């Protein structure tokens, strides 16, 4: 899939990022290093997938880019500027939809814009409608969350993040709770949205298939303390546009296997270390 639009996404740079947490209190306090010397650059408008063993610090990394936490060492930069807090230039989508149950689809998407207070009511409604249409929910504006399927709720959450027109979309296993078919549909929709909007996307997943299918590159992390073990360029993505099942092609299977091997080695090594400890 080619990227037609001029990008409106930001560049992300992680430089020697370390994150340690203190656990317990007083004499029982101990420090847990979750990320160590993480270096990664994501180009403006790039779609980067991130995989790694459970507990290696993927969500911690996403929190740092989102500005929800600050690194113990190193720097997180957005277009060259050090990130010091959260901001509307970065939208975050989690596995849980976190919609307000008493608000309609349209109101859920418009809610954040309301808080932002920059647009008139008519402008907010127009923007919310536009993004609902983009995620394939035209006609569901007046539905409440309980009237929507899981996939539809996640579409609302994505529309809500997009409505701010952030330069970066940070996605933490957004499709993990969905059934396989809905997940594949949403993967294609996300790619279409990415093409249309030119945002930079960082997408955390446990699914190797999902990472290869979505990412222009896939960053593989080591087990804790997490570092970037390898960044794999995904080849032959045009195959996704062609008729047929790209996931079954030898090209896809080969790349899927390469990432599986990187991850598998990592998990095995960490188990060996734990056994020796
Ligand atoms: N605020 C915190 N205080 C203390 N420890 C934390 C904190 N946040 C995360 N951790 C620890 O950091 C480690 C990494 O957590 P994180 O959620 O980033 O991993 P992950 O790779 O996203 O995991 P998973 O793939 O299982 O979702 C875990 O051991 C977790 O317990």
From TrEMBL:
InterPro entries: AAA+_ATPase (IPR003593), ABC_transporter-like_ATP-bd (IPR003439), ABC_transporter-like_CS (IPR017871), ABC_transporter_ATP-bind (IPR050166), P-loop_NTPase (IPR027417)
Listed Pfam families: ABC_tran
Entries under Gene3D superfamilies matching the protein: P-loop containing nucleotide triphosphate hydrolases
Key words of the record: ATP-binding, Cell membrane, Membrane, Nucleotide-binding, Transport
SMART domains, A to Z: AAA (SM00382)
A GO term for molecular function: ATP binding
PROSITE patterns listed in its UniProt record: ABC_TRANSPORTER_1, ABC_TRANSPORTER_2
Domain ABC transporter: 12-244
PANTHER family assigned to the protein according to its UniProt record, in alphabetical order: ALIPHATIC SULFONATES IMPORT ATP-BINDING PROTEIN SSUB, TAURINE IMPORT ATP-BINDING PROTEIN-RELATED
Entry similarity comment: Belongs to the ABC transporter superfamily.
Protein name as annotated: ABC transporter ATP-binding protein
Organism: Achromobacter veterisilvae
Species lineage: Bacteria, Pseudomonadati, Pseudomonadota, Betaproteobacteria, Burkholderiales
């Amino acid at each position: 899939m080619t990227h037609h639009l001029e990008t409106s996404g930001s560049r992300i740079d992680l430089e020697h990022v370390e994150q340690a947490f203190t656990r317990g209190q007083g004499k029982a306090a101990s420090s847990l290093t979750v990320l160590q010397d993480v270096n990664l650059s994501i180009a403006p408008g790039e779609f980067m997938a991130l995989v790694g063993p459970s507990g290696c610090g993927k969500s911690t990394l996403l929190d740092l880019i989102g500005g929800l936490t600050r690194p113990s060492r190193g720097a997180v930069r957005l277009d060259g500027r050090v990130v010091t807090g959260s901001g509307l230039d970065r939208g975050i989508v989690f596995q849980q939809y976190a919609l307000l149950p008493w608000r309609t689809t349209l109101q859920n998407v418009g809610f954040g814009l309301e808080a932002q207070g920059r647009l008139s009511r008519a402008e907010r409604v127009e923007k919310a409608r536009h993004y609902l249409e983009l995620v394939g929910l035209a006609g569901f504006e007046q539905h409440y969350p309980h009237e929507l399927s899981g996939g539809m709720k996640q579409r609302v959450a994505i529309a809500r993040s997009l409505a701010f027109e952030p330069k970066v979309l940070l996605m933490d296993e957004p499709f993990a709770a969905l059934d396989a078919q809905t997940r594949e549909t949403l993967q294609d929709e996300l790619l279409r949205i990415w093409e249309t909007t030119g945002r930079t996307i960082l997408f955390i997943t446990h699914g190797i298939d999902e990472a290869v299918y979505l990412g222009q590159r896939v960053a593989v992390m080591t087990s804790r303390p997490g570092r970037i073990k390898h960044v794999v360029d995904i080849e032959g993505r045009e195959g996704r546009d062609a008729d047929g099942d790209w996931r079954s092609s030898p090209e896809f299977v080969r790349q899927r296997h390469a990432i599986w091997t990187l991850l598998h080695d990592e998990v095995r090594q960490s188990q060996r270390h734990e056994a020796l400890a």
